[in-house]
Amino acid sequence: MHKILVTGGAGYIGSHTVVELINSGFEPIIVDNYSNSNPLVIQNLEKLCNRSITHYEADCNDEKVLSEIFNEHNISGVIHFAAYKAVGESVSEPLKYYENNIGSLITLLKVMNRFDVSTIVFSSSCTVYGQPDQLPVSENAVIRPANSPYGYTKQVSETILQDCVHANPKFRTVLLRYFNPIGAHPSSLIGELPIGIPNNLVPFITQTGAGWRNELTIFGDDYNTSDGTCIRDYIHVIDLAKAHVKAFEWLEKNTDSIGVFNIGTGNGSSVLQTIQAFEKVSGIKLAYKIGNRREGDVEQIWASNDKAVNELNWKAIYSLEDAMDHAWKWQLKLGEKQP
Ligand code: UFG
Fold first, then answer.
1. Ligand 1 atom 7: the closest Cα is on which residue?
2. In the structure, which protein residues have their CB atom closer than 6 angstroms to any atom of ligand 1?
3. What's the pLDDT score for residue 337?
4. pLDDT tens figures, 222-252
5. Greatest Cα pair distance in the chain
6. Which residues contact 219 (CB under 8 A, 6 or more apart)?
7. pLDDT at 195
8. Shortest-distance atom of ligand 1 to CA 180
9. For 47-84, what is each residue's pLDDT tens digit?
């Protein structure tokens, strides 16, 4: 059985990917420092998968501990999720982002080199495109100067991985450019639970619906879109998780050393449409107001996913309503009181 090291495996996307890896016969080894997740996630994953899951509390910047883990397991590939991801925070604390996101990738790659592990699937983001000229955006669109230090860490990380491919003929990587992951596992055992006030739209919507927050602020309704609010490609986190399994299958079948894929549904939804989908599945009228634009937001972006569909043999199954329904069930399971 292939052992896959999953950094950030207790996080939102990481935990859902661990489930899909197990469902497909891979053996995940989780490394997480719980800086934006909770050790309870491991317990819930074990309940969901009905088995124990190897996991380590460790920081990916810690070369010594990472080496010990590689020494203990015969790891055949890595998925690197572990990173900070709050766009606004990255503007106020850039060094924290450069150190963690870029530092940990370099440390991980050094250890991989030492142990002769040469395949890595990397969590990139559609943020690398900024505001594209053409929509839907495809993988060969121009990469623009990043809007935030966070976005820049994703661009630099992609370049680092490309350079590693160039330097070492054995080294192979898949860069998955995620659009906006939302939703939760239908079991409601795992889902998204950001620490503190959510930055992202969907957890803010569900937490407002549940009474944890008084009201949602829509960041601007004067954009050049059909209803004036920003447009994103919201993808169910399980569909996104499955793309990682497909990435390993692609690496096994192909000889290319680098694959770059957009992982989105191919459909754009506005903030108001997303709220409407929530209201439909929950039966709740959401309290919201219109506020100012948020600095750094792109007006509209959605994916061309043709390449992932054709080459990865991947496709998104869930609709926006499915994702909202699962997100809402997860929120209800968390209870009325904020932890
Ligand atoms: N929004 C609101 N109110 C909120 C939160 C968000 O109106 O309280 C709006 C935003 O302005 C935006 C949309 O909802 O138009 C989506 O915002 P998110 O913060 O959920 O998502 P982003 O598209 O800004 O960012 C996400 C991830 C990043 C990733 C990026 C890629 O958080 O990590 O997608 O575009 F890089």
1. 218
2. 85, 87, 125-127, 180, 199-201, 204, 216-219, 230, 232, 271, 294, 297
3. 67
4. 999 999 999 999 999 999 999 999 999 999 9
5. 56
6. 230, 271, 291, 292, 293, 294, 297
7. 81
8. 34
9. 999 999 999 999 999 999 999 999 999 999 999 999 99
